[in-house]
Amino acid sequence: MEAKPLFIFPKWSNKLTLGLLLFLHTIPLYAGALVAYGLDPVALNVGYAPQQPIPYSHALHAGQLGIDCRYCHNTVENSSFAAIPPTDTCINCHKGIRPNSEKLKPMWESFNSGKPIPWVKVHDLPDYVYFNHSAHVGSGVSCVECHGQVNHMEVVAQVKPLNMGWCLECHRGPETYLRPRDKVTQLDWQPTIPAGKTLKQAQQELGAKLKNDYHVQPNVDCITCHR
Amino acid sequence: MANKLTNGTTHGTGKKYFRSLDEVAQTPRFKEFLEREFPVGASEWLGASRRTVLKILGASAALAGLASCRRWPAEQLAPYAHRPANRSDGVPVHYATATEIGGVGIGLVAKSYDGRPTKIEGNVNHPLSAGASSTLIQASVLDLYDPDRSRNLYSHDKSGKSIIATWDEFIQASEKIPADGNGLVVLSEASRSPSIAALRKKLPQAKWFEYEAVSTDAQRAAAKKLYGRPLRAVPSIDKAQVVVAVEADLFAGDLDCIKYSRDFAAGRKLHASPDRSSTMNRLWCIESTFSNTGANADHRRGVKPSEVFTVAGALLQTLGGTPLESTKLDPSLRDFVQKLAADLEAHKGQSVLIAGARASADVHAITASLNELLGNVGKTVHYYADPEDPRSDTDWTPHSQQLQAFNDAATTADALLIIGANIAYTAPSDLKIPETLAKAKLSIHLGTHRDETARLCTWHLPQAHYLEAWGDVRTFDSTVSITQPLIEPIFGAKSTIEILSILSREKKSGYDIVRETAAADYLAGRFSEWNWKKSLFDGLVAGSARAPETIGKSDAFTILPAPSGGDLELTFITDKLHDGRYANNGWLMELPDPMTRLTWDNALLISEADAKKRGIWNNEIVTITVGSTNLDATIFVLPGQPVGSVALALGYGRTSAGSVGNAVGTNAYLLRTSSNYLYIPQVTLASTGRKNDLASVQDHNVIDAVGAKRKKALIPELVVEGTFADYVHKPALGTRKVVSLSMFNEHKYDQGHKWGLAIDLTTCTGCSACVIACQAENNIPIVGKRQVLGGREMHWLRIDRYFKHEGDHTQALHQPVMCFHCENAPCEEVCPVAATTHSDEGLNMMTYNRCIGTRYCSNNCPYKVRRFNFFDFNSGTIENQYIPNLLRAEKSELIHMQKNPEVTVRSRGVMEKCSYCVQRIEGARIKLRAENRATANDARIADGSIQTACQQSCPTGAIVFGDLNDPHARVTKLHALAQSYGLLDPELNTKPRTQFLAKVRNPLPDLDAELYRSEDEAEGFYWQHTEHSATPPAEHSHPDDHSHSASSASTPHSAH
Q1: Cα–Cα distance for residue pair A22/A106, rounded to 1 Å
Q2: CA distances to B284, B888, B1053 from B58, in Å
Q3: Contact B918, B843 (CB under 8 A)
């Protein structure tokens, strides 16, 4: 009986091999592109500035009028969460100031119905990250380090990438970012620069002193933020 | 099989423990659990064919493209419109409150996040809970968010069809009942609420009955017989040196179990006196099954339920009480009774006898008169009266007779009101309660669920959970606690007092009713806003405890005839579901029973000898026949179950419990009748030939003590145990400490903290409160019976149960096992993505967001404490687990309200394990830093300021967490004790941070000696085994000899 011929690749498969090799070369390219996309500020939401139900201007309230951050975000010093103010807080002033403004309609609706104003979250960390505002503000980390100069923003936008590498920058070297606790909500504050030193040097010196005074020992263990 | 058992122990490996009969027989099933990380099928998709998988995969890929450009969806923030005073968003608030189970009030502290109660703890000031809790308390928060809770009122329309009604319609309908309650017959669950008692007086013409399917009312019936009044006996175990439990589930089943456990442990805190000068109490146990209390006993005898009376009677006779008729005693029990009598005689006034819910009124009478005879009354036993008991108004009868009286009264009643009690399900079957209910013209049911009883009543009203309504309760010494609501009724339910107020036409709010009762009753004469607020804040009304009653000499003890027994008796037991009311609580349903380790089923517990005799074995369904009644139940052969006695747990086989509790197990109430109320004197079993795979986790996560089989005899047992006599002269009890050199650069921990945990096996009773506490704290999902069968249960903390069988006696002990946070953690070495790493404070961290689910860590963990999310168990119901996220409708929003926001809710494909409650550590650190900020110092976290969830719930204080760098910390001192040991530490050099304190029992030297082989003897045997014995005994030399294990494993049929 004639033996069954062995299966042999046909000739045209040589071309396929070439094609396959070329295709395989694109995989690292694809992977590289994916990583690049992941680290792109756009992917990290830098510049994310959603439209809010009330066109509230931080530039006006916190900037021009100089209202302290903690007037509205009053739990920032004792809670993990910096409270979004209840409608009552708005009403405190706005019952007298421009109460009939068209823009404030949702505020009055909320005040009368008891239903919350649906603000859109701008700085949105993943659910597996446990960030505690009180721990940071209490250690002399200013609002501005994460939220940027909100006092100059008409519409609040995310300015920092808020990714883990960015968090660790500060956790590994907090000196660059610490300031006196009473200056934490003064977003335009800068350390006084002694003669012959740069701003950077001045900040490093102050930061080192504050790190010691405030017993700041930022942890880089996973459980510090992931539980 | 019996041969195997005896063989395994007579050639004496010292203390030989086994987890199950499968282990003794080394069945293939057991070996599979031992050798594989997960059993066959655990890694495969259950129930979905390849085709289905491909279909779903295709759908997932298609839907993946729908994701928007932004990496995650936009979230909204919903602040308060009007924020309540003193509310800080994101900061949990604790409120003192209370609940009542079966008429026993328990003071609690509930934790609330942004208005959602998430966790319940005991109230440290409360006399019953004293800060600890039980499984029922821990699981009660889940009941609040039960999706199957009653959401509507239901009434019957003209055609008898059930329709949804409103409260206004009910109020209108209720006006048919006269305001004084004339013609109204009420049947209520047990309650000692002063407010309910006060409202009862406003319905003077109504007839009241009270029913609890499981209660220790027989004890009050005995007191009535002996002292003329139905007084409640409260034992103080902490003041007793000798404790005798007769048919009592002191540590897991009894409603006062938190107090009993604490008091029992108070007499066993050996580590409290490191100089070993302390004494130790002794627990004796007489019971008709093998209960958790029996596992903790120093001396135990299992007898048939009818023989409990005989044994107790013989004891009374020996101690000089009235001789009883027919106290013929088995010779093997005579020695036991003699020694027990002598021990009691030697501890007059320092002993206590406690009979439990399974004991008859006659047995209670015997224990009560023994307590009197031994001079224990007023010392270790106190009697209390219950004026709030509705039955005190009339001739008091026990619960077992109340339903009959209700039945009689119902025939002439105009209206029935049933409060809480699910009598259509729990009533003895001969009373035909469903027929009574069906005949009633107007029947009103108030209950948390639309249960079996609700469906037979013309009206069903949703009853508020205790976290939703105002109320008041009294505990064992009558201390009042006020039930403070934390949340508005989620489904618009009302509380019992609000309903009674509607019926008396007053229609007051619960808050007003409780305040009025406070002013008129427990705060009478001193009611002020301050005292009211203080009572709410403290969680109890100071000075509201009643003094114990003084009782005279008991009336002459009438001679009782001994009950008749048969060759196979069936005793009704209760487990985690109590009487069945918690059947829809998934946490409880999936909690492994302390003795059988069963989940999602009740089984007919039977002794090995009885099973063999009938040719039946585990997982086989048998028909239980009592007279003309038949009931199918699954067999579970429990080592230590008395011969001639089978046990079946009440509370299963429900038909209208909800999606968790329906059709789980066997409804034992179908066998219960008024005459066979506690046990059935004669049953017959017949095999049906069918099988039901019981989801017992006893062989899951088996720690392999064998290693290399040649070293087997060298390796000590996982649980180190010794007697008190041994402990006093040689406290190490066979634990071995090693000083090992390490290949690694080890952490120094010279700064900061170094966390560690100690577990005292001597005081751990295995009650499992810690398991549920851990589940509630750490967002641990339930997985359902099928997944448990596949070995996928998610409990971070499990309680291993080991049996020991010597001679005629079986003993069991419990060992809680969770991640030990090894210094040389094997899991950390193998993670390819560094998702599990070591922290600067010694914690073995698990970073979920980094985990890619290789499961290498779990494979490499010698303790098998790591759990893998094979599915997204946390979202969706059990039924739709097989459908990927994108296709699944969100159904679990309500249950998600319970989740602890401090802990990540894990998703599919992620490994998880005990974290030492790291959220509590971090919380304490942040709190301390805030305090330090004010004082500008740098204090360290103080000892005792962090309690892990398991530690906080433990009623015996067996679990201690703390900083090993602090020489004054309790945990450091415990680790330094001679009896402290790390599991498999000498063998594997893992350096576990959780250490056990060896189990110490306190037996008499001349009783059950075979169980208590002395330490030297046992240790000598280990060595002899390996060094001198060339051919060790067969079972040990050939643990993997296939022909051998196959024959022993085949089935018990072939073995006999």
Answers
A1: 59
A2: 63, 15, 49
A3: yes
Phi-psi region of B14 (alpha: psi -120 to 50; beta: other; left: phi over 0): left
Q: What is the residue whose two structure tokens read 């008129």?
A: B520
B159 Cβ contact list (under 8 Å, min separation 6): none
Interface residue A135 vs chain B (CB under 8 A): yes
For the CA atoms of B114, B116, B120, B125, the dihedral, rounded to the nearest 10 degrees, stands at 50
pLDDT value, residue B645: 93
Phi/psi at B235 (nearest 5 deg)?
Answer: -80, 150
Residue window 207-226, chain A: list those with CB within 8 Å of chain B. 213-215, 219, 221-224, 226
Percent of chain B with pLDDT over 70: 83
**Complex prediction ipTM:** 0.84
Query: Which of B628, B633, B677, B646 lies closest to B566, judged by CA?
Result: B646
Dihedral sign for Cα atoms in the order A183, A189, A194, A199: positive
The SS3 assignment for B1021 reads: helix
Q: Are A170 and A135 in contact (CB under 8 A)?
A: no
Point out the least confidently predicted range of B319-323, B640-644, B917-921.
B319-323
Higher pLDDT, B875 or B261: B261
Nearest in space to A63 (alpha carbons), one of A144, A153, A181, A141: A153
Cβ-count burial of B966 within 10 angstroms (0-12 exposed, 13-18 middle, 19+ buried)? middle
Output Rg (C-alpha) for chain B, integer angstroms.
29
Average pLDDT estimate for B729-733: 83
Contact B563, B281 (CB under 8 A): no
**B850 contacts in chain A (CB < 8 Å):** 222
Label residue B64 by pLDDT band (50, 70, 90): very low
Strand partners for B646: B570
CB–CB of B317/B325 below 8 Å? Answer: no
B1043 has pLDDT over 80: no
d(Cα B573, Cα B619) in Å, to the nearest integer? 19
- Look up tokens 């992931």; give the residue: A226
Q: Which residue has the tokens 């309609």?
A: A105
Contact B77 A121 (CB under 8 A): yes
Residue with tokens 């022993």: B1048
Q: Which residues of A touch B71 (CB under 8 A)?
A: 43-45
Q: Which of A156, A145, A138 is nearest to A84 (CA)?
A: A156
- Rounded to two decimals, the pTM is 0.87
Distance, in Å, from the CA atom of B191 to the CA atom of B208, rounded to the nearest integer, reads 12
B57 is written with which tokens? Answer: 């995969």
Chain A residue closest in CA terms to B751:
A217
- The pLDDT value recorded for residue A60 is 93
Among the ranges given (A67-71, A151-155, B250-254), the one the predictor scored with the smallest mean pLDDT: B250-254
CB B819 within 8 A of CB B912: no
Which residues of chain B are within 8 Å of residue A79 when distances are taken between CB atoms?
Answer: 88-91
